Amino acid sequence: MQFTRRSVQTAAAIAVLGGMLASPVWAQDKPKIALVMKSLANEFFRTMEDGAKAHQKAHASEYTLVANGIKNETDTAAQIKMIEQAVAQKVSAIVLAPADSKALVPVVKAAVDKGIIVVNIDNRLDGDALKEKNLTVPFVGPDNRAGAKLVGEHLAKSLKSGDKVGIIEGVSTTFNAQQRTLGYKDAMQAAGITVVGVQSGQWEIEKGNTVAAGMLREHPDLTALLAGNDSMALGVVAAVKAAGKTGKVQVVGYDNIGAIKPMLADGRVLATADQYAAKQAVFGIELAQKAIAAKTPQAQLPAEVKTEVVLVTKGSK
């Protein structure tokens, strides 16, 4: 069989067309969005990841998702590497829950300088650090101070003026840890309740347990411990039990993770706050999608998108 130049060109054209039909242009051009979270040992961020993956599955024709998280809450260096890897993979956008409010700003700036859209969720990047880099990064998330105040006010109803409480804070360099502590303090001050100390449990069960045990030894007259997240609250509950003070020292948390629900039901935890982990990731992704589609530059993105936070108690539905 003989082939003319024309027949070879025709065959090549058909092959190219066949390849296009097998792999549509829109599939090749789909934006890739990276979700970079804090510790996946924390149920809150596993819920966030699940929500993001469910959203991507429902919108599979619109974008691809790369989701990753660090091993523990303080491994900032690993999170910086994840962002650098996302940049190297030429993602269109990064949705970031930063482990540190200041330390992540330089690598975020480097990503934005390469034309990548960056959206901040969960823990707000430091405003002064952003300003120093002349950088606008939209924050999608709840008012952590208001959420913690709701929890603190509910706790205050079961205490009396003059009672003593301790606060177990998250990683102290994070904006949301600072805001939750302020919210707890707002509620305690309004009720005339004394905060005897604030110590960091670094968002983790074991460290929350150690700090709570120390506080209970140092202040045997404590009436409550306010944990900055539910992981630490789990550790606090164990410390209260070990001290023989279950029912005598109230415990509250923040995040409404699944592991806290039986403790709300039996009274070991009085209250927590739900800030809808899965929704936060989705709202961040959707904002990134809109910016990509409209070719909106980073500097023109909104400064903030508020999301809901609600009080959760034994009686909550």
Write structural notes for this entry.
This protein has 317 residues and is α/β, with parallel strands linked by helices. Helices cover 46% and strands 18% of the residues. It has helices spanning 5-22, 25-28, 43-58, 76-88, 105-113, 127-132, 144-156, 175-190, 205-218, 230-242, 261-266, 277-294, and strands at residues 32-37, 64-69, 93-96, 117-121, 139-141, 164-169, 194-200, 222-227, 250-252, 271-274, 304-306, 310-313. A 6-stranded parallel beta sheet has the order 2-1-3-4-5-11, sandwiched between helices. Strands 7-6-8-9 form a 4-stranded parallel beta sheet, sandwiched between helices. A two-stranded antiparallel sheet has the order 10-12. The longest helix has 18 residues, at 5-22. The protein starts with a helix and ends with a strand.
Strand order of the largest sheet: 2-1-3-4-5-11
In DSSP terms (H or I, runs of 4 or more residues), the helix count works out at 12
- State the helicity in percent bands: 40-55%
Query: Radius of gyration in whole Å, from Cα?
Result: 24 Å
Structural class category? alpha/beta
Strand content: 15-25%
Q: Mind summarizing the main beta sheet?
A: 6 strands, parallel
Determine the oligomeric state from the structure: single chain
**Terminal Cα span:** 76 Å
Q: Can you count the beta strands?
A: 12
Q: Helix and strand string, N-terminal first?
A: HHEHEHEHEHEHEHEHEHEHEHEE
* Large-scale geometry: elongated
Low-pLDDT regions: 1-28
**Average predicted confidence as pLDDT:** 91
Chart the SSEs and their pairings.
Blueprint: H1 5-22, H2 25-28, E1 32-37, H3 43-58, E2 64-69, H4 76-88, E3 93-96, H5 105-113, E4 117-121, H6 127-132, E5 139-141, H7 144-156, E6 164-169, H8 175-190, E7 194-200, H9 205-218, E8 222-227, H10 230-242, E9 250-252, H11 261-266, E10 271-274, H12 277-294, E11 304-306, E12 310-313
Parallel strand pairs: 1-2, 1-3, 3-4, 4-5, 5-11, 6-7, 6-8, 8-9
Antiparallel strand pairs: 10-12
